[in-house]
Sequence to fold (255 residues):
Amino acid sequence: MPPSTAAPPALKATGVVKRYGDGQVAVEALRGVDLSVADGELLAIMGPSGSGKSTLLHILGALDRPSDGSVELHGRRYDDLGDAELTRMRGEVFGFVFQFFNLLPTLTASENVLLPALISGQRAGLYAERVDQLMARVGLADRAGHVPSELSGGEQQRVAIARALLREPQVLLADEPTGNLDSRSGRAVLDLLRAMADEGQTVVMVTHDAGAAAMADRVVLLRDGHIVQELPGGDTGRVVDALRALETEPAGAPA
Fold:
């Protein structure tokens, strides 16, 4: 049989453990997580509070390092890189969207989108066309000159998504991107993330919202630092039932 020529996944975590503290007071937030994310996949991570969702997202995005195990981007291990290289990856390889929009209040929407380039010391003119394209992509071309206080919550989150995409990241990581939005605004943000994945953008999203998770291609459920179940996206009721089971079963019970 000829050797496989399949491309490696966009992201791969192997045996990832995250431990805080030492000795008897040590706490393991992640306990041997194995996970692969395909190129162009929208993956949702769910689980009860304290299950390790955000910790896993931070390790995947090079915001933190695992205590044990490894993480790879397209087959290249990066958890063992130096701080300077990890900083570069956070700025160029990964894009981040959080529950709170973190827009600078005195800057316009377009200026907020441009901010990552300015922070890295690059000339604004190099990104002028890119900013215009992104503002149009998130449906805010006519709001580009407005400051955050003149935008709705959903509009602010779409500006934050545009900012995360400025440097064309290979992977977009979203931590509760609809958690601070009303249902209508949240749906607009989810529709945008879904459309981006359909166009080839890899997206990993932590969410507590079963409806949001159901829009993903795949849903991973965590409990006590373990992945205990994976479900296909598209079925809100099935996700709700699985999450309810996780929250009601005693720790250590099979999922």
